[in-house]
Write a structure and sequence with these properties.
By secondary structure, the protein is mostly helical. It is 55% helix and 0% strand.
């Protein structure tokens, strides 16, 4: 994919993932896994933004 992400869509994805994390806080049975081919583009961007937004 060569187009830039729409920021509002990316933030919506992050919020949805955080909601899943919060629903699993009590049992910790289902970790969130992020997978990509090399982990350097979309995957890395997602992980970095998630970490930065939580701080």
């Amino acid at each position: 994919v060569s187009k830039r992400p729409v920021i509002s869509e990316l933030l919506g994805l992050l919020r949805a993932a955080w909601a899943v994390e919060q629903s699993n806080v009590s049992d910790k049975k289902y970790p969130i896994l992020v997978h990509g081919v090399s982990g350097t583009r979309r995957t890395g961007t997602y992980v970095l933004l998630s970490i930065l937004c939580k701080q």
